[in-house]
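During the second half of the funding period, the structural biology subgroup turned its attention to how the target accommodates small molecules. The most pressing case was zinc ion, which had performed well in the primary screen but for which no bound structure existed. We therefore specified the complex as follows and requested a full 3D prediction, including the ligand pose.
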Amino acid sequence: MLFARPMIARTLRTLLMPALLFGCADAPIEDGVAPGEATAPDELGTEYVPGPVDGKADNFAGPPAPLKFAGACAEGDRLTIAAVGDVLLHGRLQQQSFRESDGYVSLWRDAQALLAQADVTYANLEGPTAAGVDARGRSVTDPGRTFDNRVYTSYPMFNYHPTLLDDLMASGVDVVSTANNHSLDRRSLGADRTIDALEARGLPFTGTRRAGEDREWYTITEKNGFRLAWLACTYGTNGIPDPEDQVLLCFRDAAEIEALVRELSTRVDAVIVTPHWGDEYHARPNAQQVALGKRLLEAGALAVIGSHPHVLQPWQKHVTADGRETFIIYSLGNFVSGQRHLPRRSSMLVYLGLTRTADGRTVINGARYVPLHMSETRDGRLTLEATSVPADSRALTVGMFGEWNVQPPASGLVTNPECDPSWTPPAAPHGHDGWIGGACEASDACGGAECLDNLPGGLCTEWCERTCPDRAGRATTFCADLGFENGGVCVARCTADAECREGYACREVARPSDAEYIRKACVPTR
Ligand SMILES: [Zn+2]
């Protein structure tokens, strides 16, 4: 095979690269880091740690199955819940919020209507909102709405101005978790002052309490006649001691949490547990998450909504021993953060629909999601995209959760559209659409990769020497020698022809200048 190489694209890429690398002091380095080159992670994500792929790194699993519930079309009272992941404000995000006229809303403006349209909306408040407290937990003069790097700070000890809470509430957030590894970033006093700020505004929270306070760990929200119990916990507090026992710990306190879930489930319509857990930057839950999640669902929780890994982890339906259909998502990823790399900037808003049937039971009628992406504008502002997500980010999220459950951002919220006989499920795209190996007409469909429009249906790809950047955190691409003049092109891995698009077949191909290194990949047949 010999294909003409589009010289224009190559030249453009060469010109763009230095700008990408040196364009700003906080240069994004999302490109060019191959799996296996990872070192220790940090909170900003300057190093890349690919997630394990079920031990089958060479396999592309194909599109995920729809997540459906037997109670989808049951008659009864309805309630919708929305949930997003970590509100994790690195310095740039705080500085931007103090500059912009709409404050913190500038970080998620595009998602505001999507948050607000649910009956009850949840977020993880990852850090204190402790006015006038420094990193040692001492009371000092509050600087006001300014990123002074003393009271209001970034990683590793976050603290946010309490007006963050006003902006979350104005965006429709009804309940937050305060149990996470940053709960004690302003020590005991910071946890107290955060609770002061939450209570002053009437924003319900769960997972922490004041020093010396005998408060319940959970909170109950009431809406449309539904009483929901929310219960948050965290795996730990970054080694910061908790002498006043102010933070609920998921694993140490598992028996207490389980008993609480069991008790709450007898007197509210649904119990929702929001654990802060899991391995950072891993696309799969660990055994501890799976075991505790199942235990809490079996104890009576209707849903477990996790966070902390900074990347998405899968969702599942779990049918309990007593026959209840329950829901778990192991990690929602970051809602808003300053982290780099596609998987850390790609997350989602989950909608869960509840129906209370005539016999008083609450069942799940459906789960939907909207892919989200934290984007950086040309002028260096960070803002969440919800109504129009870059192709590679959408491909990553939809590749994990499937097209069937996508809630189109522009249409009204329906968690069980399949109950309408006129509804047609969206066509499942090829798993690589918008990403390497996918079809394209122009490069803007390839989310930063190039479109080789002289190949069948167009091919989103990148030029490569040995390895391909695997921004999706899944080893699904291969640097193949397709006979181009110099260098290989990144193509999608496969196990069978059925995984490849029309005009492509699953063939063994070698890496450029390494004829021994062979993998199966979708390659053009003409
Ligand atoms: Zn965390």
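Two results from this model are relevant to the next phase. The two ends are 8 Å apart (CA to CA). The chain has a mean pLDDT of 85.
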